[in-house]
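Extended Data, record Homing endonuclease
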Amino acid sequence: MIHFTDQILGHYLSGLIEGDGYISITKKDGVILGITFNFKDKPLAEKLLSCLGKGSIIKRKTNSIELRISHKKTLCQIIDLINGKFRTPKIDQLYKLIDWMNKKHSMNIDKLPINDNAIFNDSWLSGFIDADGNFYIRNSLKQIICKFSLEQRMIYPKTNENYNMILNKICLSLKIKLHIRKRISIKNSYYIIRVENQNAIKLLISYLDNYPLLSSKHLDF
């Protein structure tokens, strides 16, 4: 059973949205907040929806589902939970949602700045890992090697801002270096976080013991 406090849910949800979510203003002047999940994580999507309010869970063509929310009251609750907790350039989408709510519904919601607190101080990274992280084991004749990786594009396409600052901050917390997978176009190049050495693995385990993964990835962990 998953239990949330507002603080844990807010930081976790922020990381999840910044990894595998989007906030879109439609052509008909509506809003859609969507988060993509692997189909086997439908129980997590259902639990989040029950905590947040009204919305729907839609099956997609691939082996995935999307939690989709457009209801005003639920969007207001989500803004209250995540405002001030985003850490990446995707905060641009949150700000557009707040602008839309203020204009469309005559509200006065402040746009809080990016969260610059220490990475290990809250559940944001747990949500980000549930969205974009991967755990795997490699067997060799001499040893079993446990690894973790997380990839993120270098450039956020909507504003051309770089993800370098937040990903470097994660790497500094884990005491590792940030890697780059280059392509001809920088927009198609990726940063890669690799956790392979024992010290970094211990730091990651300690963090995830405090702020557990909520998706099926906790089984891989």
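Summary. The radius of gyration is 18 Å.
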